[in-house]
Amino acid sequence: MIRTRFAPSPTGYMHIGNLRTALYEYLIAKKAGGRFILRIEDTDQNRQVEGAVEMIYSTLQAAGLQHDEGPDIGGAYGPYIQSERKEIYLRLARELIQKGKAYYCFCGKERLEALTDDRGIGKYDRRCLPLTKERIQENLAQNMPYVIRQIIPEGETSFHDEVFGEITVPNGELDDQILIKSDGLPTYNFANVADDHLMGITHVIRGSEYLSSTPKYNLLYEAFGWPVPAYIHLPLILNANGEKLSKRKGDASFEDLTAMGFLPEAIVNYIALLGWSPAENREIFTLAELVDCFDTAGLSKSPSIFDIQKLTWMNGEYFKRMDPEAFYAMSLKALREAVRTPGVDLRAAAEMARTRVNFLHEIKTLFGFMDSLPAYDERLYEHKKMKTSLGNSLDNLQKALPVLESLEIWQGENIHAALMALIGELGVKNGQMLWPIRTALSGQPSSPCGAIELCALLGKGETLRRIRLGVDLLEKAR
Ligand code: GLU
User: Fold this and answer.
1) Are residues 120 and 174 in the same domain?
2) Are residues 224 and 354 in the same domain?
3) Which among 45, 276, 281, 373 is least buried, having the fewest CB atoms inside 10 angstroms?
4) Alpha-carbon torsion (125, 129, 135, 136), positive or negative
5) How far apart are the CA of 9 and the centre of ligand 1, in A?
């Protein structure tokens, strides 16, 4: 059974890279009928941020990435919060000491600092490795602060990554890594490996920034005699300036993006494609479709760019494909704010907006002409392709007025029939009648719908009023 995990550190910011990691972990598990686990990696107490864990839950939930085990829902391998597993790490580290693969180190800060250069680089010189059992007991009895270090064996460490291939590192480059810190808490690396093993994780999927630490992880698996999981390191995601995404540089988090009006489904769809190419040439996938189509063979090594324009386009595509009733329900608030004129058919307005906006907040601009007709220039009536001039626009508006006035049932079909009959009678082109009406009703060079729909939407009284205003404007211009 495939088991993957999302193991965020609660730092209060879920950037797009984190969410993509969670998404791929989810997809790989679900595709194989496996389980997706959430584990909170909070051993670095200095980085704790209030509310960060809640943000992780709410983001996963909004993105639809439901975990099968985790701190909030439990599971057979808990606790799933590292700060609640302190004893486990200590016990494991002592086990390694018993096996002769780790040792107590009592060296103080000053001594360690002397071993490193200005950049903090330097290896521990193993001064505490030969300490006798008696000496260690004495130190412990005196409550002397200590850390537990792993003995890095000689030789080299190789591992296979499904994206980056074979990687080999000479062990000589690695320090005797600390497993337990002087505060009794595990180091990040140790807790991460211990938990991946104890929680039965089969596939470790994470950002490529962890690639260089992986040999150290493997040496831990080896020291314990544990099987090494499959590794899938993911390429970086860069912002438009080619930099790594970060909050400090103002890159948007999932939360920011949803606040900007992006749909969670569109965000998830878009980030699935950041570093992965589907086998078929296609861009729109629901989460369930991603589960079906996802294949690690499509993962790329090269960084991808987070392109907000592309995401904007995708958001619009999601609206276009949305069920009309669902879009109506979702956009009603924005529609009510945009259109205050009573009697307007908001369901019809929603249907016009659905295929025309990338964001719900664009509805306000789209229907801006509804509540009050914008002041416009008479030259708007002149349209080359429609073959309209100021003169024939005036004529046709004047002819349309009594026809519309006499209509008893104000409905799209009737308006259409009446205007078409008039067009036939006058022997004018459709555009020569409809363009002037559209202009008179919207006062804009473009509108979310054609003349007849505009008439229906605005209602009889307002339609006639606006056409008369148009007639006045054109008469003055004559
Ligand atoms: N806690 C790490 C992070 O937040 C995850 C590392 C991993 O997935 O192994 O980036």
Assistant:
1) yes
2) no
3) 281
4) positive
5) 6
Query: Which ligand 1 atom minimizes the distance to the CA of 6?
Result: 8
Q: Please provide the average confidence, as pLDDT, over all residues in the chain.
A: 94
Atom of ligand 1 lying closest to residue 206 CA = 8
pLDDT, tens digit, for every residue of 64-108?
999 999 999 999 999 999 999 999 999 999 999 999 999 999 999
pLDDT grade for 143, boundaries at 50, 70 and 90: very high
Residue identifier of the C-alpha nearest atom 9 of ligand 1: 206
To the query of whether residue 247 is one of the catalytic residues in this protein, the response is yes
Do 355 and 437 fall within a single domain?
Answer: no
Q: What is the pLDDT of residue 474?
A: 97
DSSP collapsed to 3 states, 114-129: HCCCCCCCCCCCCCCC
The dihedral sign for the CA sequence 258, 261, 265, 266 = negative
Condensed to tens digits (0 to 9), the pLDDT of residues 242-265 reads: 998 887 888 889 999 999 999 999
Q: How far is the CA of 293 from the centre of ligand 1 (A)?
A: 25
Does residue 269 have its Cβ closer than 6 Å to ligand 1? no
State the closest ligand 1 atom to the C-alpha of 5, by its place in the atom list counted from 1. Answer: 8
The CATH number assigned to the domain holding 54 equals 3.40.50.620
SS (H, E, C) 377-439: CHHHHCECCCCECHHHHHHHHHHHHHHHHCCCCCCHHHHHHHHHHHHHHHCCCHHHHHHHHHH
Q: Do 60 and 199 fall into the same domain?
A: yes
* pLDDT > 90? residue 40: yes
* Structural domain of 36: 3-71+191-236
**pTM of the entire predicted model:** 0.90
Q: How many domains does the chain have?
A: 4
Same domain membership, residue 358 and residue 421 = no
Give the Å distance between the CA of 8 and the centre of ligand 1.
5
Whether the predicted pLDDT of 45 surpasses 80: no
Q: What separation in Å is there between the alpha carbon of 18 and the centre of ligand 1?
A: 9
Residues 205 and 181 occupy one common structural domain: no
The finding on whether 206 has its CB within 6 A of some atom of ligand 1 is yes
Centre a 10 Å sphere on the Cβ of residue 297 and count the other Cβ atoms it contains.
10
